[in-house]
Amino acid sequence: MNKNKSIFLLCLVFILIQCRWISKLGDNQQEESWHAVHILRVYSAADVDNLIDVMPQLADIGLNTIILELDFNFKYESHPELILQKDPITREKAALLVKTCRNNGIRLIPMFQCLGHQSWAEETYPLLIQYPEFDLTPGAYPNNENIYCREWDPLNPKVYEIVFDLLDELIDAFEADAFHVGMDEVFLLGDEKSPATRGMDPAKLYAKAVNDLYNHLVKKRGVEMIMWADRFIDNNQYEFGEWESSANGTAPAIDFIPKDIILSPWHYTDRESYPSIPVFLAKGFRVLPASFNDTSAVNSLIKYSYDFKENRNMLGHLFTTWTVHAIDSLIMYSAIRTGMETIMRLENTTDSQSSLDSSPPIQEKL
């Protein structure tokens, strides 16, 4: 009797632990439709103040999520040698921004460009300046000529000893329950001038980089992971071009990464259809399509993606603001205002064609 009772109690404890773990995963997930904006040009403490000033107007427009790209603009305590700005964003400013977002019903998600985008034009960013041994193509492409951006070496474990410290600081400072890792427009994996990866399969290299970040962010830190999805779209099949999709062999990586990563395919031109969306949904991923500044393209992407809104993995919409230089200009950004009007109309129309049965057929192969 005592033995059976002990077994019962152990089983009960195990079930309770599993339920609590599942509940914790659910707590991270945003139930309402994402009305998100990616903001790039918050580089300093003063910029944070400007963003705080316009927060009520952003909420009034209908935005409920901000993805804030921080990169090397934060005052890192673990690696101060990687701070880019003279007046970086401090923990105190981060806390004030978090409080303001919450007061306005906005979820704040930090972002750090991982793997690619380690330079822009002739400027190489601090990670590869301070640690040149992390460069995927060390000594090649002087002044960053003949490449888009420099990339770090995903096979060098010492990279992540540094990078994970940075990501952890951002998660803690911004009290984050989700994290955007970037990872778009990666071109140099397997490059002939890459000693570490020359001749290797770009898809396997890319999948490894994704999984290394996933293991730290999701498994260790318990946050949701978001990333751009262009490297998972096969340009040979969909012909979006080498930027919006992959023409360099990374697309097969889609089948070697966890399904609970949120994928954000960005599409900036006006099209009749955006096949990446149903393909990613069919594979079981949550999807957050992203638009830019062409209002016709914004509306086309929103209307197409909202045909799938009854699919719980269709999260909503993400507006990008790459060319908005002044923070207060966000509230008058036509792409956001026009797009939010379309979203509100679609979400409030009960007779819109929103069921999966009436959606365009979901494709099975990317």
Describe the structure.
This protein has 366 residues and is α/β, with parallel strands linked by helices. It folds into two domains: 1-30; 34-358, Glycosidases (TIM Barrel), CATH 3.20.20. It is built from ten helices and eleven strands. It has helices at 2-27, 45-61, 91-103, 126-130, 157-173, 202-220, 235-238, 276-282, 295-305, 334-348; strands at residues 34-39, 65-69, 107-114, 119-120, 123-124, 178-182, 224-228, 262-264, 286-287, 290-291, 316-320. A nine-stranded parallel β-sheet has the order 9-8-7-6-3-2-1-11-10, with helices on one face. Strands 4-5 form a two-stranded antiparallel sheet. A hairpin with a 2-residue loop joins β4 and β5 (123-124). α2 (45-61) runs parallel beside α3 (91-103). The longest helix is centred in the first third of the chain and has 26 residues, at 2-27. The model is unreliable at 6-27, 350-358 and 361-365 (pLDDT under 50).
Mean pLDDT: 90
The level-1 CATH class of the largest domain:
Alpha Beta
From N to C, what is the helix and strand string?
HEHEHEEEHHEHEHEHEEHEH
Number of domains: 2
Shape: globular
Structural class assignment = alpha/beta
